[in-house]
């Protein structure tokens, strides 16, 4: 018997655009309720929620930076409260700033540190 996603509660970080938006909709197509996380563009996140809700499931938006542990704790708590639980987390959020390999000094220390803090270490403690 295949695993059913019907009525499962899913949090997708970086769910407001690109692959994250597609992931949100695919979960909804299978009957899962979805929390769409975004960092900056609430309008785009709301558009994803509308597409998700068109599949007859619950969907909400939550703002927060998945690279910040304190935001992640709040995002998870909000997801559990609004969806009634949390079964799956898709750590989709990511960030990069491209620079010429010969000029890595073009990256600020904040930018340098942001890449692993978001892309490798999404903390949900």
TrEMBL record:
Q: What is this protein called?
A: 3-oxoacyl-[acyl-carrier-protein] reductase
- Identify one Pfam family in the record: adh_short
Question: Reaction catalysed?
Answer: a (3R)-hydroxyacyl-[ACP] + NADP(+) = a 3-oxoacyl-[ACP] + NADPH + H(+)
Q: Whose protein is this, by species?
A: Exophiala sideris
Q: Give the enzyme's main class according to its UniProt record, as a single word.
A: oxidoreductase
Please state which protein family the record places this protein in: Belongs to the short-chain dehydrogenases/reductases (SDR) family.
Q: Which InterPro entries match?
A: NAD(P)-bd_dom_sf, SDR, SDR_fam
Tell me which EC number(s) this protein carries. Answer: 1.1.1.100
């Amino acid at each position: 018997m295949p695993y059913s996603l019907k009525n499962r509660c899913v949090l997708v970080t970086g769910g407001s655009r690109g692959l994250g938006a597609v992931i949100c909709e695919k979960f909804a197509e299978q009957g899962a309720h979805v929390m769409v996380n975004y960092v900056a563009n609430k309008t785009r996140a709301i558009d994803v929620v509308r597409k998700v809700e068109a599949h007859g499931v619950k969907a909400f938006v939550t703002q927060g930076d998945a690279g910040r542990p304190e935001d992640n704790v709040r995002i998870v708590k909000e997801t559990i409260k609004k969806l009634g639980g949390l079964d799956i987390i898709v750590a989709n959020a990511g960030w990069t700033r491209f620079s010429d390999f010969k000029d890595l000094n073009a990256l600020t220390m904040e930018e340098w540190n942001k890449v692993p803090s978001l892309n490798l270490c999404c903390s949900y403690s």
